[in-house]
């Protein structure tokens, strides 16, 4: 299974309404195992991240008023992505034998998708869900 990232708006009745993913965007946010091994990893938490580590225990729901802070967290992860990827590989128990460059590339692409969703959420006045 894979994690997805979506943008939502709050409907008139207070429920979340997911927006369609634009044709030039992707909703891929990583493998299901990344809940703990990447987004919930100690390396991510050590940077002060508080949104994406929620994935270790469930879905990551970012309310509309939290999107700017979430985007800042994503920018911080982008700034430290090499450190995060190295730490993830060091903690790897051998289940995911990926080379550093490959994992760095995939991590960067998935983070790009999350950053793009945060941008679209800001534009729509909505929130983000990674699930």
Could you estimate the helical fraction of the residues in percent? Answer: 40-55%
Largest sheet geometry: 5 strands, antiparallel
* Cα-to-Cα separation, first versus last residue: 11 Å
Q: State the secondary-structure class.
A: alpha+beta
Outline: globular
The helix/strand order is: EEEHHEHHHE
Strand content: 15-25%
Number of strand elements? 5
Instruction: Kindly report the average pLDDT value.
Output: 95
Number of domains: 1
Rg estimate, integer Å: 14 Å
Tally of contiguous helical segments: 5
The poorly predicted ranges are: none
SSE layout and pairings?
Blueprint: E1 2-10, E2 16-18, E3 28-31, H1 34-37, H2 42-45, E4 60-62, H3 67-79, H4 81-91, H5 100-124, E5 127-130
Antiparallel strand pairs: 1-2, 1-3, 1-5, 4-5
Summarize the structure.
This protein is α+β, with helices and mostly antiparallel strands. It has one domain (2-130).
Account of the 3D structure:
With 131 residues, this protein is of the alpha+beta class. It is built from 5 helices and 5 strands; from the N terminus they run E-E-E-H-H-E-H-H-H-E. The protein has one domain.
Can you give keywords for this protein?
single chain; 131 residues; alpha+beta
